[in-house]
Design goal:
The protein folds into two domains: 105 residues, 2-Layer Sandwich (Phosphorylase Kinase, domain 1), CATH 3.30.200; 299 residues, Aminoglycoside phosphotransferase (APH), C-terminal lobe (Aminoglycoside 3'-phosphotransferase, Chain: A, domain 2, Alpha-Beta Complex), CATH 3.90.1200. Helices cover 51% and strands 12% of the residues. The protein has 15 helices and twelve strands. Bound molecules: 5-S-methyl-5-thio-alpha-D-ribofuranose and magnesium ion. The site of magnesium ion has 4 residues, from loops.
């Protein structure tokens, strides 16, 4: 049966797993163990031995953020493990090495990434990550393409979808928290400053914005394009200046690709608008803001480039395969189909980015980028700017010609 491990149980448990014990080295009594989980859902233990370190992540039967009143299935750790396996196959350099999965205890043991830190914390500190765009574009292109109909045979995709189709409760969290609650009166909704009371009320009566949120929700419910990470915000990415890892895919399921791309872009725009709350003097983070926008531009541009390159070399998919378009003018027809596909993905990503930004300001679960701004007036100014761009991305996303135009809108909003 399931039991939640305590710090005191961890060494005895891991000592029985040869690959882990070897990785840690020395004797179990020498292993240093600490619980470090600061996310919304799980327990996370770091275990360090004389030779190396591992992380043990265990699901709780309830939502850590709220407590036992919000039960949550342990099976989410199964989906997380399965997603990590798939992602490690597609983009091994950006997924932590897995040592062990225990379905009964709902836990996974993986490599301890050290000295990596959570990207969100680095963005708050104002640290530049020169490889971030390159690495995340690769991670998303490789994982999304490989699990789409373009990258695998239809029969395999159908079988694989069946493996993830029960991740119902975690999808439900996204359906409610990202697409519904910020646009209605809901129990968990909160905002940190009364300065936002009027804005929050206006959002709840904004027909076009509400409609956009619901249409994105419909996409999330009905478009099984690829195995998506499902929670690819800056708290699910670990970085150093030279390495990048995507972690925590417990929300994984077959959904719209734009949801992953949008989660990342939306969280980078949140980081962008929160910089005014972290600068030591007005303007001191100007160049960092520019770096965030440059990174956003590179992520989309490189993602688009790499996704198309994978497509042009594809031979496993059953649809829009290059082999079908070999004669005379036919490659141009494939290029036109690719342009249309990538354009739709771009507009989807912008919409999802906006929804993810809105939920982090008006919904249940917030982000440290904004929450750590102490001055409530300044925080509210940052939040209002972020909400303004979020609405634009959701309601008028189709009007942006390219990612540079989106960044121009972000710059204009920041200047107001
Ligand atoms: C109720 S769980 C809140 C959020 O934490 C996770 O990181 C997901 O983003 C989820 O929506
Ligand atoms: Mg998480």
């Amino acid at each position: 049966g399931y039991r939640a491990l305590k710090e005191a149980d961890v060494a005895a448990y891991l000592a029985e797993i040869p690959a882990v014990a070897t990785n840690l080295g020395g004797q179990p009594a020498e292993w240093k163990i600490r619980e470090v989980g600061d996310g919304n859902l799980n327990f996370v233990f770091v275990i360090e031995g004389p030779r190396g370190g591992v992380v043990l992540k265990q699901a709780l039967p309830y939502l850590r953020l709220v407590g036992e009143s919000w039960p949550l299935p342990l099976r989410r750790s199964f989906f997380e493990y399965q997603a990590l396996v798939v992602q490690a196959k597609a983009a091994p350099q950006h997924v932590p090495k897995l040592f062990h999965f225990d379905e009964t205890l709902a836990l996974t043991v993986m490599d301890y990434l050290n000295p990596h830190i959570i990207l969100r914390k680095g963005l708050i500190r104002g640290t530049v990550y020169p490889k971030l765009a390159d690495h995340m574009a690769t991670f998303m292109a490789e994982t999304l393409f490989a699990t789409s109909d373009l990258g695998q045979p239809a029969a395999e995709k159908k079988k694989h979808m069946a493996l993830f189709c029960d991740n119902i409760e975690l999808c439900r969290i996204t359906e409610d928290l990202v697409f519904t609650d910020p646009w209605r009166v809901a129990d968990g909704n909160r905002w940190t400053s009364p300065q936002l009371d009027f804005t929050a009320a206006a959002v709840r009566t904004d027909g076009p914005w509400k409609r956009a949120a619901q249409e994105l929700k419909l996409k999330f419910l009905s478009e099984a394009q690829a195995l998506i990470h499902g929670d690819l915000h800056s708290g699910s990415i670990m970085v150093t200046e030279s390495e990048t890892y995507a972690i925590d895919p417990e929300f994984a399921f077959y959904g719209p690709m734009g949801f992953d791309v949008g989660a990342l872009l939306g969280n980078l725009y949140l980081a962008y608008f929160s910089q005014s709350g972290h600068e030591t003097m007005p303007g001191s983070r100007d160049s960092y803001r520019d770096w965030i926008l440059k990174t956003i531009e590179s992520i989309w541009t490189l993602f688009d480039e790499r996704f198309r390159a994978l497509w042009n070399n594809a031979h496993a998919g059953d649809v829009l395969a290059p082999a079908l378009f070999l004669n005379n003018q036919e490659p141009l027809a494939l290029k036109a189909a690719q342009d249309a596909y990538m354009r739709r993905l771009f507009v989807d990503a912008l919409g999802f980015a906006g929804a993810k930004m809105t939920r982090r300001i008006l919904g249940l679960a917030h982000v440290e980028d904004l929450e750590s701004i102490v001055d409530p007036d300044l925080r509210a100014r940052c939040e209002k700017r972020a909400l303004k761009l979020a609405r634009l991305l959701m309601v008028e996303g189709g009007g942006f010609t390219d990612i540079k135009a989106v960044n121009d809108a972000a710059r204009a909003t920041q200047r107001e």
